[in-house]
Amino acid sequence: TTVHSITATQKTVDGPSMKDWRGGRAASFNIIPSSTGAAKAVGKVLPSLNGKLTGMSFRVPTVDVSIVDLTVRLEKEA
Asked: What is the CATH number of the domain that holds 64?
């Protein structure tokens, strides 16, 4: 899961979105769930993890913030 601030591509007021209904929400007043390319990017850098990660993103109404929450289940004891 990634959390980051609003981006320049988000709408500043509620209105229709061609991509999905969540994208139509005003960025400065709503926490908006979105997709993320982070899981795919990790799979490209570490091929052994390709296809084994999923993720989602939250865009939050702040000027500057970023956080990643990663939960791992191991098949063997560490």
From this structure: 3.30.360.10
Token pair of 4, please?
A: 């980051």
Task: Give SS3 for 34.
Answer: strand
CA distance 53 to 36: 11
Phi then psi dihedrals of residue 47, to 5 deg: -55, -30
40's enclosing H/E stretch is helix 38-45
The per-residue pLDDT for range 25-61, each reduced to its tens digit, is 777 788 888 888 888 898 899 999 888 888 888 888 8
Q: Is the pLDDT of residue 23 over 70?
A: no
